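Lecture notes, continued. The same structure-token format from the folding unit now serves as the input rather than the output. Read the line below as a description of shape only.
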């Protein structure tokens, strides 16, 4: 997947821990407001981890969906279950939509 965000690892600045910087001389990426007492450090950590979380999610999703399409015992990989004449989304397909929505939120 071709993403547009700043490449490389993102780090919390050791001098200004409310700032997130790129590790490859890419400078400041974001600054979190220290006004959010009790939250700003966690917000900085979450933002700094975003590229790794996104790439891990994309890789995991690709592998998991390929495996589920081969092995799902409920839908046999079709994503749809027929029960008493009605069609339902298989649970693995519903999870697929949620993950795809999160990836799209981060990339589109
Ligand atoms: Zn299924």
């Amino acid at each position: 997947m071709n993403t547009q965000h700043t490449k490389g690892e993102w780090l919390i600045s050791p001098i200004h821990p409310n700032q997130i910087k790129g590790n490859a001389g890419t400078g400041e990426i974001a600054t979190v407001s220290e006004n959010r007492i009790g939250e700003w450090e966690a917000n900085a950590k979450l933002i700094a981890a975003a590229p790794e979380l996104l790439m891990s999610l994309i890789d995991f999703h690709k592998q998991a969906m390929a495996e589920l399409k081969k092995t799902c015992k409920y839908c046999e990989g079709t994503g749809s279950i027929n029960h008493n004449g009605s069609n339902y989304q298989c649970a693995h397909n519903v999870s697929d939509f949620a993950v795809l929505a999160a990836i799209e939120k981060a990339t589109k």
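Point for the exam: The chain has a mean pLDDT of 92.
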